[in-house]
Amino acid sequence: MQPKQLPAANGWAWIKQGYALFMKAPLLWVVLLVIAFVSAIALSNVPVVGEPLVSLLMPVVLAGLMAGARDLQQGEELELAHLFSGFQKHTTQLVTLGGIALVGQFIIFGVMLMVGGGTLVTILMSQEPITDPNVMSQALAGAGFAAILGALLFSVLMMAMQFAPMLVYFNDIAPLQAMKLSLRAFLNNMAAMLAYSATIISLAIFASLPMMLGWLVLMPIVFTSLYASYCDIFPLVTEAPKAVTNEFSPRDDQSQF
Description:
Blueprint lengths: L9 H14 L2 H19 L5 H24 L17 H24 L3 H8 L7 H11 L1 H18 L1 H8 L3 H14 L1 H19 L6 H19 L24
Helix pairs in contact: 1-10, 1-11, 2-3, 2-11, 3-4, 3-8, 4-7, 5-6, 7-9, 8-9, 10-11
């Protein structure tokens, strides 16, 4: 499987497609994401094991949300049960993916420590909230090269994780190979990704103005547009057909967005 290389204009198209998916079940999308985020916050507050568990389970939950987007695209219903779809298929591989990402984070922190970013790493790894913004600004100023290197390495890790859960869940690809494909897809479509990111950032500014209420719409669109970009970049998902007439694949209805 090879990711496609698409023009920059597709970055905006993904957001339009994501909005169309969101509007098929707006209330339920909001409910699903509120449940997911509240559960993640509650779990992360568990001492010692909470935050690692959130990292391990994040690809599982994301795969479930993407399964919901796919079913909506195929004319089916979005359900609360989609939140747990990742626990019904390829769960071990998805958790492994989360584990690789978690190990990657620790490796990046280790690299930052070795190049003089000790104070910054201590702050980033601390579970205590930062109440004084000057503390972070001083840590960034003192870290210098470590901060730049860390930002670069975390960006690469983010690119590798962008499509990996979907490639594991929909395409039966092993975790490491999925991360490689995701990174290649991001780099091949840098112009579209930049257009997409710039639009999301602009929308985020407006979403934050009315007491952050706009995020109730924008956050689901972030997830649904992620699914739209996956469908656009990667080839047809091959999967055993369900016992339903006129079944179509995620790429078959691209023109309907």
